[in-house]
Specification:
Elements lengths: L2 H15 L4 E6 L6 H10 L13 H5 L1 H4 L5 E8 L12 E2 L8 H20 L4 E4 L7 H7 L4 E2 L5 E2 L7 E8 L18 H5 L5 E3 L2 E2 L5 H7 L15 E3 L3 H4 L19 H5 L2 H5 L3 H7 L9 H15 L1
Parallel strand pairs: 3-10
Antiparallel strand pairs: 1-2, 2-7, 4-7, 5-6, 8-9
EC number: 1.17.99.6
GO molecular function: epoxyqueuosine reductase activity
Catalytic activity: epoxyqueuosine(34) in tRNA + AH2 = queuosine(34) in tRNA + A + H2O
Length: 309
């Protein structure tokens, strides 16, 4: 067995032990196919107010520029699909935000994985990334065989659907590389048909500036009145394109206690949310990704939904 093969097996075994759903590895290099897509996305202002996407264009497409000496991208998936979900007549938040902020949960696991690699192999240089740096997570996960990028532009797997976070280690170690899987969306257009704001304007292309997640999280100005009545009661993020995807019928609930929701979250109805106080917001979302939008932002979203009903 070569060192590359041995080290790859070691990394994948430890990733599994740490609770990651899947681990795939690809050779670090320039993302040739992604370059024109990213350029088109930015040139047509599909990113709206997310101006940071315009920065570090070269680093975004080539991890060897982002992490000098990089040889491998280790992509990892962490399941967040909840056992219990919000129900009844209520305002909704995306399932990924039910529990502890995934950035912190995954970063701790990635640090542990990198430490294990160094303990077992020796001095290995590299960095951990969780959706907070110029890394094209889904492209690398697809390249390493963890799934294919679906028509809604999210990563999809035949076994597990799409309810998981994507993260990676970029390291200066030669490893055994996995190969991409084929696309299994077929003729299905469920996600395109279900999107109430027409953000998926054609298969495999999303206008980020029209997505409900963008409006309720990233947009700092007022939500356009033209979108009123289209949000299907989503107040933070949106799972519509995932909920209707046939591959998500295979989703299984996560085993990460930190992703479990605050008990009050699942009990609240529309009236409770409309009467939300700063204190209750702080209690329910103490260490949640929902804090990104802040109390004022969530109230703005709830008021927008209330006026559209």
């Amino acid at each position: 067995m070569s060192n590359a093969e041995k080290y790859s097996k070691l990394i994948k075994a430890e990733a599994k032990r740490l609770g990651f759903m899947s681990c795939g590895i690809s050779k670090a290099g320039f993302l040739e196919e992604e370059a024109p897509r990213l350029e088109d996305y930015l040139n047509n202002n599909r990113h709206g107010e997310m101006k940071w996407l315009e920065n570090h264009f070269d680093k975004r497409l080539d991890p060897t520029v982002l992490v000098p000496g990089a040889k491998s991208v280790v992509s990892l998936l962490l399941n967040y699909y909840p056992e219990e979900q919000q129900g009844g007549d209520t305002y909704k938040i995306s399932k990924y935000a039910y529990g502890r902020d995934y950035h912190f949960v995954i970063k701790d696991k990635l640090k542990a994985l990198l430490s294990h690699i160094r303990e077992e192999i020796g001095e290995v240089g590299g960095r951990a990334f969780v959706d907070s740096a110029p890394v094209m997570d889904k492209a690398w996960a697809a390249k390493s065989g963890l799934g294919w990028v679906g028509k809604h532009t999210l990563l999809l797997s035949k076994k597990t659907g799409s309810f998981y976070c994507v993260a990676e280690l970029i390291i200066d170690l030669d490893l055994e590389y996995d190969t991409p899987v084929t696309d299994h969306c077929g003729t299905c257009t469920a996600c395109i048909d279900a999107c109430p704001t027409d953000a998926i304007y054609e298969p495999y292309k999303v206008d980020g500036s029209k997505c409900i997640s963008y409006y309720t999280i990233e947009l700092k100005n007022e939500i356009p009145i033209s979108e009123r009545g289209k949000f299907d009661d989503w107040m933070f993020g949106c799972d519509i394109c995932q909920d209707v995807c046939p591959w998500n019928r295979f989703s299984q609930s996560h085993k990460e206690p930190l992703f479990d929701p605050h008990p009050d979250l699942l009990q609240m109805d529309k009236k409770d949310w409309e009467e939300l106080t700063q204190e209750t917001f702080g209690k329910i979302f103490q260490k949640s990704a929902v804090k990104r939008t802040k109390f004022a932002g969530l109230k703005r979203n709830i008021d927008f939904l209330k006026e559209g009903n």
